[in-house]
Amino acid sequence: MKQIFTTRRLVQIGVFAILTFLSLSHLRYGIEKAASIDAYCPFGAVESFLTKVTTGNYLNRIWTSSFILMIITILTTIVFGRVFCSYLCPLGAIQEWIRDLGRKIGIKKDIELPAIMDKYARYLKYFILLFIIYYSYKTGDLFFRNYDPYNALMHFGNEYEEKVIAYAILGVVLFSALFSKNWWCRYLCPLGATMAIIKKISPFKIVRDSSTCVSCGLCNKTCPANLNIKDAQVINSADCISCLNCVSDCPESSLKAKVFDKVITKKAFGVIAMLTFFIPLLVIIATPLWETKAPSNIVNTAGKVDVANIRGSNSLKKVVEDSGVPLSVFVKELNLPQDIDQTLLLKDIGAKFNLKNATGAVLETEDFREVIRKAGK
Predict the structure, then answer these.
(1) Has residue 1 got a pLDDT over 50?
(2) Using alpha carbons only, what angle is made at residue 358 by residues 141 and 304, rounded to the nearest 5 degrees?
């Protein structure tokens, strides 16, 4: 009987649970108490790299945590291949879970692109990666954020108006996962493209013993990356995500995983790779190096109020303190209650008190920004 709760599956569930808790904490308590989910994704460092190198500043919502995660991810990838994609990425995991569900409800055959189209479609993610890096640098912001299905996934329906495209892409990704294997990861994911480039220098590979292989094709069927394993002698493709499903599922044990030409079992591989990732991470989290957000998203490093960066997850109290605009001004301009609870988040105030702006729409964050602009702060 196939083991359900493998090391990889347990890690996937654990990481998904932790990130869900962090994201919901931010959505519930605001940025002053909990950083946004962007702070816990290594791709933020990829997007912010050019800006940090050329200006010394981070992009909005990115701080040292993203760079630390990226450094650890790179080092882990160099040794073990793309274990981040197979063990630690929630969007990759949920696609696998949905595909398992699809098989259980009767969708047995994977729907795939023709081989020649699949070959060239895999290069799309590299162009997307370059496009995102360029426009994040040019705009000085996380350009991909409002198109990112992972970001939409971890917002659980919140900020829908800002992320309509991201939620639409997420819907397509999750629906397609019912009948296909990780299309997003293979063809479009910019973080997957980053990991694939690094994977090229990894000593990790899978070797097939052709003398014992019976060409049953089970390895191809079980591969989330849809690689042709049964006809290869050595599997070191940049698209291999180091899940080792093929190794554990091979009925003749004809496939062996190797790191530095040393054979390693799937269980040992998963345990060692995860310890390599999490031990340095936990050590760094315990130090001052780990920072998930700037002291204030409202006041920039030059000491000036950055009105455009005020967010709905800021509390009214924080906005009053950092902007220097008295509470009485907000009360007068926006018709707020005189005794308003200043710990309320900006995004909740309009709906809670049924307040409308000049256009008749429910009061929103932009209305608070406009008051600060008018006050000349």
Answers:
(1) no
(2) 35
